[in-house]
Every structure is written in structure tokens, then in C-alpha cells.
Amino acid sequence: MIRNQLIWRLGAFAALVALITVLFAMQNSAYVSEGNIRALMRHMSVQGLAALGLTFVIVVRHFDLSFPGVASLGAMTLGWLIAIGMPLWVAVTGGLAMGFAFGLVNGIAVARLGLPDIVTTIATGGLAIGFSYFYSNGTSISQNFFMSGLLDLNDSKIIGLDMPFAILIGTALIACLLLHASRFGAGFYATGQNRLSARFAGVPTTTLIILAFALCATLASLSITLLVASSGAANVTAGNQLLMPAFAAVYLGAALFGRPSVGATLSGTLLMSMMLNGFTLLAIPYYYSDAIVSTVLITAIAIFDPRISAALRRLWPSQRQAA
Amino acid sequence: MSDVTTLHPARRSAPARQAPNGGELLMRYGFFILVILVFAGFTFLRPTFIAPGNIHGMLLSSSIAALMFLGLTWIIATGEIDVSFMSVAALSNMFTAWLVQAGYGWEAASLGGLGTGVLFGLLNAALVAGLRLPALVITIATGALAASLAAALGKGTSISLASTGFVGDLLAARIGVLPLIAVFVGLLYALCWFVQEKLTFGHYIYAMEQNRAAVVEAGVPVNRMLFMLYVLSGVVSALAGVLLAGNLSSGQPYLGTSYFLDGLTAVLLGGMALKLGKPNVIGTLTAVIFLIGLLNGAALLGWTDSERQIVRGSLLLVGVGLVVVARTRRRSAAHT
Amino acid sequence: MAEGTGTGTRAGAEAGEILSMSGIEKRFGDVKALENVGFDLRHGEIHALLGVNGAGKSTLIKILSGVYAKDGGVIEIGGESYDLGSPRAAIEAGVAVVQQHPELVGDLSGAENIFLGSEAPRPGLFARVNRRDIAARAAQLLSRFPIEIDLSRKVADMPAVEREIVAILHALRLENTRILILDEPTSTLTEREKASLFAMMAMLKARGIAIIYITHRLEEVYEIADRFTVFRGGRNVACHTVAEARARDISIPNLMLDSKTGLTFPPRSDRADGEIVLETRGLGVEGLFQDVSFQARKGEILGIFGLVGSGVDELSKALFGAIRPDRGQIVLKGRETRFTSPAQALKAGVFLVPGDRRTEGLTLDENVVFNTVLANLSRASAGGLLRFGANRRAATELAQKVDLYPLKPDRNLRGFSGGNQQKVVIARGLYREADVYIFVEPTVGVDIGARSRIYALMREISKDKAVIVISSDCDEVHGVADRTLALYRGRPIGAPMRGEDRDRLLHAGIMGSETGGKAA
Q1: Which domains can be identified in chain C, with CATH numbers?
Q2: Fewest Cβ atoms nearer than 10 Å: which of A35, B241, C184, C493?
Q3: What residue in A sits closest to B321 (Cα-Cα)?
Q4: Closest chain A CA to residue B157
Q5: Is there a contact between C325 and C318 (Cβ–Cβ < 8 Å)?
Q6: Do residue B200 and residue C124 have CB atoms under 8 angstroms apart?
Q7: Does residue A123 lie within any of the structural domains?
Q8: Is residue B325 within 8 angstroms of chain A, CB to CB?
Q9: Is the pLDDT at B137 greater than 70, yes or no?
Q10: CA distance A244 to chain B (A)
Q11: Is the pLDDT of residue A323 over 70?
């Protein structure tokens, strides 16, 4: 029964992918060209990493609004470390560590001190943006970028895959192992569904919530690293563009597959990126992208909502049998 | 058994918490003292802080910001959230500018800008209060939609305007150092204070935050209240957007970002004033003046952007912390 | 249909009747919660509703207050027939309920809470809140009763009894209230507070308001009630006046006891000298329970009987590290221990089958395998990764062992009946391989067949582990345990005994007396 449901959901996802592909390819055949698919995968890599991190926080039923700000701080830290001549690996580690530290602060504030997650993460996000101004008083950093090898993170290839996409796949595999195959994964889901019963089963709920926030912030920093590598400069607003697509990908995926998971988030990201890429190809200006994403997000939440999906099922009784 | 017992008034060791003690008084009014001290400090360090021109400027920006955060104050007071207010203001601002540029008069353009606020207010209200969808994610999405449309109106850049019409005249009107608009906003806040303190609407806002089940059981139309609050937030944000079009004599698609943190900070920090951690209109008004004065004074002192940003973020964190501390104190009192 | 409603029910056409319910039926899935139930209430009487947990009294109250829709039967209030499809309809019919934990707004004053939702003469969102007027109306309402409380205080600062009174006055704010339902109002009150509450009830009664009074404390029935109805297994089995019960020496505890047709308890253990695994010495938590000392041995089941609010639930949580005791010791396998979290208790070998399995026990949106292995993830994984195949096999095996029905390890817990959900919690305990198993209210909401199986499992586990069963069902404790102890208002009555007489145990737990009937 469960298996049938999964097949049905995968089918719906495949149908959506096919539909979007056909619609855009009809408008512009370049949509299915190799170059465009590569561009799509690059785009997906940046968005997907941030969305993967957010998935953990959503699984433990919390919210994080700080990751765009934290990502900006990570970007500026990375840029500054490169600009002062640090080797690439130090700079990248530095950026990620900064994200990790902010994630820990979020997690401790929410899980241990019991602060409300929404406002607290808005505040820490604001604080992170404040710190990101420190390095250059707000101007963008790009010194030494060419020499440092940072750009190779974007340009090089590994077993035929573009580096950013390879990083996404690698991270997704690790996240998948952690969330769906490791002993901690069961704890994440148990914590999210019923924190008290998870605690009574010996699950370290507080630690897992802190870990979720830490992963979210770290992956947002990793995502921004790729973005900096592709744009060739770090600036204090870099993270802003992560917020909407990440939330949209997680919720869209959860709507499609019934619950948030690594696979669901990747599917959500793929659908979002396919749409955005397609619209770009049709020469629809960039500033419409958030309008598209948010419309999709609102629709996805409405469908995700059990009462509304129940009402939809009542409207189309045949689907109930299929599900 | 039928004999009559009366309760002894001084039973149990529950301390008489009738008269507020010194600490509570300090918490209630401490914020006002802090504002006065900080402003006095700025005046001492940079006398231009209280130059008429500077005061006028600060009051003008405070009025517009306070208008924008009015609905937000009550929404947060009920325990809900709206993170779309600043983007709605930006959309209203851009739409007004776009209409003016397209040759409509300022009157029609202002109405148009206001209309976008009504529209987004209704959209939020329908989704959050009507369908009971999660407020945070919904307002993130509607906010992004508004911001995106705002950017699209100017094709990604701002729209500058040659004239500022009646909105400009309204903003320029002043009584001494006092901008006329500040008087209007002041009156509006006084009216809202009345609604909040004297009418059932305000009474239920705070009751709802504490125990929504009790309010629902008592037959109060809680969802209708939330619906009205989200519409209100959309309308006042749009109004602020229209005023900003006149004030900046342009439409700025990205003006929302700077108001986002300030709005939440003002509401939460202002909650400490008078009502011990509960957002309220007088508190918000005071906190807005405080924030604007602080940023203005800091600029006079030559602080960097970075430092000012950090002060903003820290103030919000302090606000969150204070609200939580005040709430846990109340809650623990309720559970003894 | 109204005929044959049980042994002692009176035909309900007497004069002065305000409420008459007959032939009431309610079913939840396969379980019959109420079966052909009749109940009647007279003007100005206090009518106690008695029965063990799950006997059906709360279901009846929920039907009367419009929370549940009845599946069959007739409700007449004041001679008119009512359907009571919603809480609003019940309020309009004059039925008001004061819940066990009433919903109040802590920061509002007593007077404001009483008139919450009807502050102004004309209700609306923009009506003037005249706090002086509210205070005056509240004072007027209060003046009808011989009680003095300060209604200008915040409810959060009020002691429990005053909050209870505020809740009752809130229910009475509407002039048309004819029937008042009080759900265990005394569970958090002291003796003095109880006296003032009873005084208020007497006044209400004098004004002609009929009160349905739900309680677990039988002595209160004699103190305040005029009549009582006893529920057992979803039926009303007896209804007497208190005077009649006194005159004829009717034993209410015996009426409440469920003969549990078809229920079999496993044979007792014949070992009395198993190794002591868990011992408590003078264990206590301020305000919850005191001086609890017992020894749990391998090879036998220790039973602790106590009503809701007697401290037994908190005791189980203190043993499991979820509440920190502030007095006494817990000695596990000869070593004194202090658990700071359930995780530590589990690691040390204590497993709790919690009393509220929906909020404390299970992850309902996950499947049987997930829930079985959750409490022992290190056993369920190798090198940090879950062993899916092995876990599924182990969970299936355990599911077979506990007789899970249907035997579908991939089904979400929501899809199982209460009894089978409980079996999954037990399977989780078996997978955990603990040394001490604590079962709290193991059979609440569990059907007869599953009960026998759960008791048999407890006996089986007790062969080489210590088992403690904590319950508010005296028959269960008496039937399954080898040694028993009763807790009354946080204090143990007597010492754990072997072969304790059922009636003595019952009286100890319900009345607080060590020997049947006599006061302690």
C-alpha cells in the first residue's frame, strides 16, 4: 500500500517534469540542449544546497529565517580570507565554520533556551548581516579570486559532471544517508512529530534540533560558496536570493511526496529550477522569478494542507482510490 | 454539609501582587527613560541632533515608519506573524510612482497604491485567517510576490518622479518643527490606543495570545478578528508606501528590506513599554522614534553601516529576549 | 429501547425532572463506548457520576455538552427533545460544563474572565469594555453565593479553588443555565478549598440548578450528592439516592468493579525471593507524592494502585528520569542512581510504557518498524547506519510475539486500534531489552481481547525482569500483580503486600483507609 502510494507520487512528479519540459521545449527548442541542461543543473546546485539544509529544520518542525543573512556573512568571510591571501581550503572552511557557528547559536537559542524560532532567527540573521559589513564596510570583495582557484569550484568538472552539481549530488547523498538511513534520521523525524514521545524513547531531541539548525546554516554557506565562485565576487546581499527558493523547494517537495525528505526537496528544487530556467530562456526578466516561485509556493502549501487536500479528494473521488 | 463556608481572604501564601512593585514600574516605564537618556547623550555629543531641521526630519521618517508597523503590532500581539508588510509598502510605493509616471494624477495614483495594499491584505487574510494556513510561510510567499511585482513595475530599477503632487504638499506641511503628517499619525495612534485599551477588539487581542481556546470557547469570532488585522496591516503598509513615493519623489523597488528588521524590532522592543512584553501601539510608536533617533544620532557620530546594522540586529535580539523573559515570568506565576 | 437499561436505573417519569436521557448509544469504530444508557437529573439535585476510567461517563458528558454526536437515543431537557449537535446548541439548551482544567486567560482579572465574550450588553468586536461595569456585574453574580473572593485579581495569581469558582461563574454568566456539569473540580483542591466549593454547589442547588458531579473520590459522594449513578463498561449499572445507599449499606466500590467477562489474568508467580532490581526509599516530589518505598524483584509483578491525581503518574515519571525527585533514593541493581533524562534511564535499563501513549508513547505517523526500534537505535544500526532488513525482521518477530493485529509492520500507527498501539509500545520495550518495565495505565482504551494478551505479556516479561504496573484500575492491579501498594493523595497506604485482599486495596486507594471502610 505504501509502495503503491510512492509509485503514484513518483508518477505524478515524472508527469510534472515531462509537462514542464514539453511546454518549454515547444516554445524554445534550446530548452533541451546540453548547454541549457548544464545551466539548469548549476542553478539547481546553489538552490538545492540551501534547500537541503532547510529540510532538516522543517523536519524537526521549526523555522529558520536567518540562513540568507548567515550565508551572506559566510560569503563575506570567504571573500575576505581569500583577499588577505589565505589558501582556498582555509577560506572555504572559514566561511562554512562561520555558518556553522551561527547555526549553533540559533539551535541553542531555540531548543535549549526556548526562544521563539521565527523572531529569534530573524534577529540572528540581521546580526549576521551586520557582521558581514565588517570586512569591507559593505562593498563587494573580489581580490585574489582569480588566483585562488575559487573559480574552479564553478568551472571544473568531475566524472563528466559540473563541479557544482557534483557537490550537490555528494551533499545530497550524505544528507540522504543521515536523514533516511542513519540512526539519527529516525530521531529527527520522531522529534518533529512528537517531541515528548521522542524524548520518552530516549531520543536526544535538544541535540538534534541544534544539529538541524547547524546543518541548515552550514549548507546555506556551502551554497553561497558556489554562488560566489560562479559570480566571482562576494557581497553582503548575496544570501537574499536563497530564502524564497529554499522554502518553496522544501514545501513543494513535501506537497508532492507527503512529507519533507531529501528526495522531496531535490524534486522540489528541480521543478523550481526547470521553471525558472525556462522562463529565463523565454526572456522573462529576472525580477519575475520570485513572483513565479511564490505563486508555486502558495499553491504547494495549500495542497500540503490536510484539510484542503481532503477537500480536493472529495472533489475528485477517483484520486482517492489511486492514492 | 449544608453549612456555609466563606473563603478567608488572606488564605495561602500567594503574595499580594496588586500594587506594582519597583521592578515592575521600572520595566513598564524604563524604556521611556532609556529613550530620553540616549537622546540626551546624542544632544550632548552632537548638538545638531536637536536642530529643528533634524528633529523635523526624524519625526517625518518616524511617522511613515510608525504607520507601516501599526498593523504588524497587533498581529504580533495576537501571537501571529506577518513578514510581508515591508514588501507591500514597496509595491504600493512603486505602483503609485508608476501610475504618476504613466500620466495619472497623484490622487488616482495614491488610490491605486492603496488598492495594492487592500489586495495583498485581503490575500493574506484569506489564506491565513480564512484557510488557516501557516502565517509565516504564507506571508514569506506573498511578500516575495509583492516585492517581485514592485521590481517588475520599474523593470528592476527605481522610478524617479518630477513632481510630488498633493502627497508632497502634505509631507511638507508643518506646524513649527512638527510635520503635519506626524499629527495625523499621532491621532491615528491615539485612536488605536483607545481601540486597544477600551474596546472588546483590543481586549480579545491580548486574551487570544494567552489562551486562544478560552476566547474561542467564549464565542468570540477569532478568525474574523485575524482577517481584519491582516487587511489592516496591508492597508497601513500601502499608505506608508504612498507617502514614501512623495517623500523620496521616486518609486524604490527595494525599500522594503530596510524596514523589515526595524519593524520587528520596534514591535518587540516597544512591547516592553507599558505592557511588560506585550506588543502595543504606544510602545511601537516610542520604539520607532527611538530607532530613528538612534540611527540618526549614530550617523552624526560617524558610525559605519556595519556598526549600525549590528546595533539593529542586537536590539531585536534584546527585544526577543525581554519578551521571552517577561512571558516566562507570567507563565510561571500562572502555574503555581 | 429505554427498557432494560441495567440493574438499578429508575424509570424516569418522576416529577421535577430537568433532564432525561434514554437509550443513548455511542460507538467509536468497533468499540461500543455507550450501550443503551439511561440517565436522569432532577431540578436542584446534585447527581454524582461514578465509574472507573473508560466506564463511559466522560463520553456521556461529551454527548450532553454537544462535543460528540450520539449514535442513538433520546435527550429531553425540561420536557423538550433536543439533538445537541454542537457545543453552541448545548449552551443554548442551558447546559454548561466546567472542564477539569478550565480554559482561562491568566492575565485577565477574575471578573473579566467571567464575562469573557459578553463584556458589553451588545456583543461585538467594537463594543466598549467597561471594566467597572464588568466588576459590578461579577460582584452581583458572586453575591448570590456565600463566598468572598477578590475578582479584581489576575486569574494567574489565584489559587486553584478561586480559578474553579471563576470558571463556574463563567458557566453561569448566561441566565438560562439549568444544568451545570462539574468534571472532577476537586482534583487540585485542598480540604478547605473543597469546603467552599461545596458551599457554592449547595447554593446553586438551592436555586434550582441541577448539577452533574463527576468525581473519583467516593467520600465526596456522601458529603455532597443527593443521588449517584454508577457506570461500568459503557452501561449505567446502578442509580441510588445517597440515603438509600447508606441505609442499605450499598458498597459503591463493588458497583464500580468490572467483572470483566471473558477477561483472564495469568497465574500468579510462586517466587517471592527474586533478586531486587529496583528499589525506592522514601522517594518524594514536593506537592506530587511522598515517602514512596518499595522493592521490585525479578520474577514478580509489583502493582501500584492510585486514582487520577493521586501521584502515581508522576511517580512513574520520576522513576524514568522525566521528573526529578527532591527527596529519597532510587536504587537500581544495588547502585543509587539519579536520572536526569529518560535517555539515561533507558540506558540504565528502565523502560516506561507511558500512561498516555498518544502524546508520550508513539510517533503515530510512522510505521511499526520505526516505532519498535526507536528506543534502541544503537541496536538497530551498524556503524551508524540503520539495518533496514534486520530491523524489519526483528520488528515483525516482536509484532508476532505481542500478537499485533493486523500484522502489518509497514503500516502507520494511526491505522491501529488502541490495544494494538499499546502492543507496539510493548514491542518497543522488548526490543530495548531493559531490566525494569514500568507499565502505566496499560489497558486504557484497550479492548478485552487485547487486555488479556497484554496481561499475559507482562507476566511473561516478569519471568526474568522486574515489572511494575501502575494503574487507576484496581481490578487490573489486583488481578495481575503479585504484590500491591495503594497511593492515596500522594501517600502510600500501608506497605506493599503479597496477596492483598481486593476490597482492602480498593478502599486504600479510593478512601485512603488501610482497612475496609474504616478511616485511616
Answers
A1: 17-256 (3.40.50.300), 267-349+436-520 (3.40.50.300), 367-433 (no CATH)
A2: A35
A3: A115
A4: A287
A5: yes
A6: yes
A7: yes
A8: no
A9: yes
A10: 7
A11: no
Picking from A287, A292, A301 by the largest number of B CB atoms within 10 A of its own CB, the best residue to mutate is: A287
Question: Which neighbouring-strand residues pair with C95?
Answer: C179
Domain range enclosing A71:
31-239
Mutate to test the interface with C, among B2, B7, B78, B209 (most CBs of C within 10 A): B7
* pLDDT (average), residues B132-146: 92
Residue found by looking up cell 487485547 in the block = C450
Nearest alpha-carbon partner for C38 in C66, C77, C64, C12:
C12
Phi then psi for C23, rounded to 5 degrees?
Answer: 60, 30
* pLDDT tens digits, one per residue of B190-205: 999 999 999 999 999 9
> Global pTM?
0.85
Q: Which residues of B touch C223 (CB under 8 A)?
A: 1
A127-162 b/e (C-beta count within 10 Å ≥ 16 → b): bbbbbbbbbbebebbbebbeebebbebbeeeeeebb
CA–CA separation, C400 vs C409, rounded Å?
10
What's the mean per-residue pLDDT of chain B?
87
Mutate to test the interface with B, among C67, C92, C107 (most CBs of B within 10 A): C107
The closest of B86, B101, B230, B88 to B149, measured between CA atoms, is: B88
- Taking contacts as CB-CB distances below 8 angstroms, the residues of chain C near A189 are 363, 366, 370
Q: Note whether residue A206 is domain-resident.
A: yes
Could you give the C-alpha distances from C400 to B198, C266, C453, C460, in angstroms and in order?
Answer: 65, 19, 12, 15
Could you tell me the pLDDT band of residue A146, with boundaries at 50, 70 and 90?
confident
More confident residue, C497 or C485: C485
Q: Any idea what the Cα angle at residue C257 is, between residues C254 and C261, rounded to 5°?
A: 130
Residues B138, B120: contact at Cβ < 8 Å?
Answer: no
Maximum CA extent, chain C: 76
In-domain check, residue A90: yes
Residues of A within 8 A of B264 (CB-CB) are: 119, 122-123
Structural domain includes residue A278? no
A 160-219 near C (Cβ less than 8 A): 177, 181-187, 189-190, 193-194, 196-204
Between CA C369 and CA C362 the distance in angstroms is 12
Q: Provide the grid cell at C114.
A: 467571567
Q: Report yes or no: C419 and C446 within 8 Å, Cβ to Cβ.
A: yes
Cα gap A128→C29, rounded to integer Å: 54
Domain of A139, CATH number, reads: 1.10.3470.10
Q: What is the pLDDT of residues B48-67, one digit of tens each?
A: 999 999 999 999 999 999 99
Task: For residue B180, give Cα distances in angstroms to B93, B175, B183, B186, C323.
Answer: 20, 6, 5, 10, 61
**Whole-complex ipTM:** 0.85
**In whole angstroms, what is the distance from residue B278 CA to residue A30 CA?**
56
What grid cell was written down for B125?
487574510
Task: State which residue of chain A sits closest to C321, comparing Cα positions.
Answer: A200
Are C358 and C387 in contact by the 8 Å Cβ rule? The answer is no
Determine the pLDDT at residue B138. 92
- CB contact (8 A) between residue A187 and residue C352: no
Least confident of A50-59, B228-237, C9-18, C170-179: C9-18
What tens digit of pLDDT does each residue of A88-136 get? Answer: 999 999 999 999 999 999 999 999 988 888 888 988 998 898 888 888 8
Distance CA B267, CA B286 (A): 10
| Nearest by CB: C156 against B6, B12, B334 | B334
- pLDDT in the model for residue A314: 62
Where exactly are the structural domains of chain B?
A: 25-256
Q: Is C323 on the interface with A (CB under 8 A)?
A: no
Give the count of domains, chain A.
Answer: 1
> pLDDT: is C12 or C407 the higher one?
C407
